[in-house]
Design brief:
With about 260 residues, the chain is an alpha+beta fold. The protein contains 7 helices and 10 strands.
Length: about 260
């Protein structure tokens, strides 16, 4: 499904337009309430307002939105990231002028800090269910009568289904159009920090984030994807953040790239 989508997002509410929700609703073919809900969060980050199978339809809607004063971002299917297009970091070395990283497969990459144009911080949230069975015995007068008092109880089972979450911080660095360097909080080896090593993974990851921001002062930085609420606002009602976080990541990256 994702690989055939052409996504249109807006980044602002047009100035001096009291009827912006009505204009947006008419262009994208939705109700005033739904259009208004999208406009309430536009400006904080890009928000998806329409999805099309055909690129021509997406381009046509984007053109109408721009004419009405909306800043738009169109995300093509080929622009939606996945781990196959990312360099997933296992170990890293913060040299004076360069970032050196190694992948889980043993590949290495060296990038000058000056080439890193975007730093995107967020949280990946995975959901899974766990079923537990609780067995208990209860007094059964009927069985006691039938068995002449030999069987006094019956066994019952209760099935409990719990929804659990795994949360992991991520940090994506964009060096031009070629390299997407992905740090994952729980799979990094932090030993290269040496004397700067912190007692917890979260503290180490926060340190890396701050250090990369310091070493890449010209890079655009966003932490809009840190919580599920913001992820859901960006994606809108069509996409669940648990399943479609890559769309939100790709949209944020393209939006930041266009601001540079």
């Amino acid at each position: 499904m994702v690989h055939s989508l052409n996504i249109v997002a807006i980044r602002n509410t047009p100035e001096n337009k009291n009827n912006a929700a009505a204009i947006l609703g008419e262009i994208i073919g939705t109700t005033l309430y739904e259009a208004g809900s999208r406009l309430r969060v536009a400006g904080k980050f890009p928000v998806i307002v329409a999805v099309y199978a055909e690129p021509a339809s997406a381009d046509e809607t984007a053109a109408k939105l721009r004419s009405a004063g909306f800043e738009t971002v169109v995300l093509d299917p080929e622009e939606i990231e996945s781990d196959t297009s990312r360099f997933i970091v296992r170990s890293f070395f913060l040299d004076d002028m360069q970032l050196r990283v190694e992948s889980r497969e043993g590949e290495s990459l060296v990038v000058d800090y000056s080439r890193i144009g975007i730093i995107l911080r967020g949280t990946c949230i995975e959901q899974f269910t766990r079923t537990t069975i609780e067995k208990e015995k209860k007094l059964s007068l009927g069985r006691a009568v039938i068995s002449g008092g030999l069987v006094m109880s019956k066994s019952t089972e209760k099935h409990h289904v719990d929804t659990l979450e795994n949360r992991e911080g991520f940090l994506n660095l964009y060096a031009g159009m070629k390299h997407i360097i992905a740090f994952r909080e729980n799979s990094l080896v932090y030993s290269s920090l040496g004397s700067m090593l912190k007692p917890t993974r979260s503290a180490n990851f926060a340190f890396i984030t701050a250090e990369l921001k310091r070493r890449c002062p010209d890079a655009s930085y966003s932490d809009s994807l840190l919580n599920r609420s913001a992820q859901a606002q960006i994606l809108g009602p069509l996409f669940n953040p648990v399943e479609y976080l890559d769309i939100a990541i790709s949209l944020m990256a393209k939006s930041l790239r266009r601001k540079q």
